[in-house]
Amino acid sequence: MARNRGIALRLSLWILAGITVILSVILTYNYFVSRRIILRNVEKDAENLTSSTVYRIDSVLRTIEKVPKNLAVFMEEFAYQGTDILAVIRTVVENNPEINGVTIAFEPHAYSTNTRTFAPYYFKQNGKMEFTYIPYDYFTSDWYQIARELHAPIWSEPYFDEAAGGIMMAAFSVPFYRWISGERVLAGIVTAVISLDWLTEIIASIKIARTGYGFLISKNGAIITHPDSRLVMNETIFTVAEDRGDQEMREVGRRMIRGESGFVRFTSLFTGKMCWMRYAPLPSNNWSLAVMFPQDEMMSDIADLHRTVLALSVAGFLMLLLMIVWISGSITRPLRALSRAATQIALGDLEARIPDVKTADEVGTLADSFKTMKSSLKQYISELKETTAAKERIESELKIAHDIQMGILPKRFPPFPNRTEFDILAKIEPAREVGGDLYDFFFMDDDHLCFVIGDVSGKGVPASLFMAVTKTMVKAKATKGLSPEKVLTQVNQDLSLDNESMMFVTLFLGILDTGTGEVEYCNAGHNPPLLLSPAGRVLILQPTGGIALGVAEEGVYPSRKVILQKGDSLFVYTDGVTEAMNKREELFSESRLIKELAEMKGKSLQEIVTGVMGKVGSFSAGVPQADDITLMVIRYHGKK
After folding, report:
1. Rg of the Cα trace of the chain?
2. Could you tell me if residue 161 is inside a domain?
3. Tens digits of per-residue pLDDT, 195-236?
């Protein structure tokens, strides 16, 4: 019975017995003592300290907020002249030492129909009262624009005022209104500017043990105060997390700017030590205060406990080591022999001898498995050689098919160097070795250029064959004098005939009159082309209502006409552009394509094609290309 006892059972009985005794003593002792000390001395103190500091800071901010709020009420409730406004602002700045400056900035022409901007500003500089009118167009400044758009009081992000000696400042802005024809209309913004030196002193006064400290971040994550001055207003909690590759820090930062409170383990930005961090928001402006409690220092009062636990652990594991060495000696000899045989097999020696193991336990089973594995490897390698040879033949044939397919598409640009009435450029990027996208262009007579772009259903070799058939048919049917409507009708009838595979192709065909710029076109279920003007306007070409070719033999393909002006461009593409997907499974989309094309006004055809390809590639970086991508751009110049 003892001979049949498995390795796992023998090891488990001895190891689990030792571990159970050792860990029961260690964990029971350590759990109750550590839990009581840590929870009592850290979490409660952290919550109290953070709450009292938040209350202290918020009380000052609330007091400061009353000043611009009262000024806004004054501006709404009382009639005033320019001298009244200046006097009130000066009085407020003189009587409020915590305020560095105040301005009342009016909306365009709100102060006077003859004055677009009016923003008197009293401020303190070098201990003296100074006055100026804000000289710049302040309507787009954050302190004005955000309060204006939100119609609510708002604190600005902190900033350094170089004119005031590099002091960190913040602004509190309050909108005020007038009643005009029974409607409450925004008249301007009252803004108070304060120095944050007092705030830095409050946070700097937080000292916990030897290296604990506090720091403050803004509602956008910018570090406002910190013992490491290099981080202040130069970094955000997110840029620090990015530099350190710390996803947990990034998540804590998100919770802080959302106005949440919490108690978490956190790596100190200053010392690099592991800390407990308590964070809480400032209610007045949604900034967030964090206080760091160094874990090692806060646990110094239980150092004796750690030494006791360590002594118990060492003694227990020494006992455990002796037991494992004694047990393993009886079972590792055959395992070492099997290891040597496995090494020889790994080096390619499939004739290596597998040692015979007589025991009826897991080692014996392992030896039998090695013998089976050696036999299976021989057979597998033989089959793999055959499979590899077949795969290489297929890859070679696909490469030839790719070269043939690309060879039937026009690829010399400019294709008609002697024709100055227009330029044309096309590019295709197959998703596989061969694909189903197609494009072509050719003259039907001296004055009519036929151009076509299409997308065959499916992928791979079947799609590439259907693509070649479609391209050949279009070129054969598009003869002089035929309209796009008749060409597509004839092509559809031929493709639908005996179409047992039920393949189809979406296709756009246009005929450009190089003399007049008129384009007559048909759209057989394809993405609508985009018309680009030299001014950067992008329009979607009107649809014609046709269905994909090869679906129904009786399909009807009405045509439309559009006149290209000099400098106009026609951008034709397949759905591989708009349906390109990024890692978040978002599509590139038609709206994004239109936006990118609008920004490319004045660009050459090469720059447009390269630019769109680059934008699609950047958008879908890291995601395998799922569909063929084809572009064609035609720019009309007219006859010279």
Report:
1. 39
2. yes
3. 888 888 999 998 888 888 999 999 999 999 999 888 998 999
Q: Note whether 270 and 212 are within 8 A (CB).
A: no
Cα 32 to Cα 21: distance, rounded to the nearest angstrom: 17
User: Is residue 156 located within the same domain as residue 206?
Assistant: no
Structural domain count, the chain? 3
- Shared domain for 146 and 211, answered yes or no, is no
Distance CA 455, CA 235 (A): 49
Find the CATH number of the domain harbouring 471.
Answer: 3.60.40.10
Q: Is residue 382 part of a domain?
A: no
pLDDT for the residue numbered 401: 57
Of 298, 318, 347, the one marking the end of a domain is: 298
Preceding amide of 528 cis, omega within 30:
no
636: three-class secondary structure by DSSP = strand
- Domain identity same for 24 and 159: yes
With CA atoms as reference, report the closest residue to 159 among 249, 233, 250: 233
Give the pLDDT confidence score for residue 549 in this predicted structure.
93
Using DSSP, state whether 505 is helix, strand or coil: strand
Q: What residues contact 162, with CB distance under 8 A and at least 6 apart?
A: none
CATH code (residue 127):
3.30.450.20
Which segments in the chain show pLDDT lower than 70? Answer: 1-13, 16, 23, 27, 31, 35, 39, 162-166, 301-307, 317, 321, 325-339, 350, 357-358, 360-362, 367, 374, 378, 389-407, 433, 640
Burial 579-605 (b: 16+ CB within 10 A, else e): bbbeeeeeebebebbbebbeebeebeb
The type of residue at 547 is: I
| Structural domain ending residue among the three candidates 150, 178, 196 | 196
For residue 96, is it within any domain? yes
Query: CA 165, CA 78: separation in Å to the nearest integer?
Result: 37
Cα(130)–Cα(82) distance, integer angstroms: 17
What does the block give as tokens for 184?
């409450």
Enclosing domain of residue 164: 9-196
Note whether 524 and 549 are within 8 A (CB).
Answer: yes
pLDDT at residue 269, rounded to an integer: 83
Same domain, 47 and 181: yes
438 and 415 part of one domain: yes
Query: pLDDT value at position 519?
Result: 97
Q: Is residue 598 part of a domain?
A: yes
Residues 248 and 163 reside in one and the same domain: no
Residues 243 and 136 in one domain: no
Residue 602, CA distances (Å) to 420, 568, 609 in order? 18, 11, 13
What is the DSSP secondary structure assignment for residue 164, as one 8-state letter?
G
Show the DSSP H helices in 169-213 as ranges: 197-204
Six token digits for residue 601: 């006004």
Distance CA 507, CA 511 (A): 14
Whether residue 426 contacts residue 631, with contact meaning beta carbons closer than 8 Å, is answered with yes
Q: Which two tokens stand for residue 189?
A: 């913004």
Q: What is the DSSP letter of 207?
A: -
Looking at the fold, whether 168 and 42 belong to one and the same domain comes out as yes
Q: What CA–CA distance (Å, rounded) separates 296 from 38?
A: 11
**CA angle, corner 68, sides to 67 and 73, nearest 5?**
100
Pairwise CA distance, residues 401 & 447, whole Å:
35
